[in-house]
Design goal:
single chain; 75 residues; 36% helix; globular
Length: 75
Amino acid sequence: MEIAGCWTPGYLKHKIQRLRNARATDMILCIDDSLNCTDDALTDVRHVIHYKRRIDARAVLAMVEAMVDSEPRFG
């Protein structure tokens, strides 16, 4: 999980590019809505949780469970 307290669209774009370069497809990106981030830079980010002041642990857990449920199973 990555928490992005982004102040500018450029910062968020840089943060997302770093996650892409790391091939972090199973990463959850939490973005503070009170800092006026736009979704323009998030078009190809799969796991995003928006929050204000606090990250909702239930939302994180629900997203993790959805990610686990969508993984291919072997055996």
